[in-house]
Specification:
mainly alpha
Length: about 150
C-alpha cells in the first residue's frame, strides 16, 4: 500500500512539474514553487511520523526523537538544495549551448547525481554523529516486549 502510494505521488509530482512547462510556460516558476513546498512539507511530515512512531514504541528517547527529526529534515533540505543548484546551473549552461531539450536533460541528470551524492555524504555524516548522542537510543538497548524486533 505504501509503495503504491509513493509511486502514485511520484507520478503526480512528475506530471505536475512537466505539464506546466508545456501548457503554461509563464506559470512554470509558480507551479515549481508550489511543488517544491509540497515536497518539503511531505518529506518533513514523513520524517516526523517515523521518529514519533519509534519513540512511542520505546526505541528512542525524546532527545533521540528530536535529533532524528532534525537530522532527517536537514538532510532533506541539503539533498533538495544540491539537486536544485547543480541541476539548475547545468541546465542553464546546456540550454545556452544546445537548446531547451538538452538543457532539461542535463539539468535532470546533474540534479539527480548531485542529490544522490549529497544523500550519500549526509548518510555518512549522520551515521558518524548519531552514536555520539547519549540520548538517541533506549537506555537498556532491548526492544519493547510487544514490538516486531522482540518477536524475532
Amino acid at each position: 500500500m505504501a509503495r503504491s502510494l509513493s509511486l502514485a505521488l511520484f507520478i503526480l509530482f512528475l506530471l505536475a512539474g512537466i505539464l506546466p512547462l508545456v501548457l503554461w510556460p509563464e506559470h512554470a516558476r509558480l507551479v515549481g514553487s508550489v511543488i517544491l513546498s509540497a515536497s518539503l512539507a511531505l518529506g518533513a511530515t514523513l520524517a516526523a511520523r517515523k521518529h514519533i512512531r519509534l519513540h512511542r514504541q520505546g526505541f528512542s528517547t525524546r532527545k533521540g526523537m528530536a535529533l532524528g527529526i532534525t537530522l532527517d529534515i536537514l538532510g532533506l533540505l541539503l539533498v533538495m538544495a544540491a539537486a536544485m543548484l547543480a541541476g539548475g546551473y547545468a541546465g542553464q549552461l546546456a540550454a545556452s549551448w544546445g537548446g531547451e531539450i538538452p538543457g532539461l536533460l542535463a539539468g535532470f541528470a546533474t540534479g539527480l547525481s548531485a542529490a544522490w551524492l549529497a544523500r550519500r555524504l549526509w548518510e555518512k555524516f549522520t551515521t558518524a554523529i548519531r552514536p555520539l548522542s547519549p540520548s538517541s537510543t533506549r537506555r537498556d538497548n532491548n526492544p519493547p516486549a510487544g514490538s516486531e524486533l522482540a518477536r524475532g
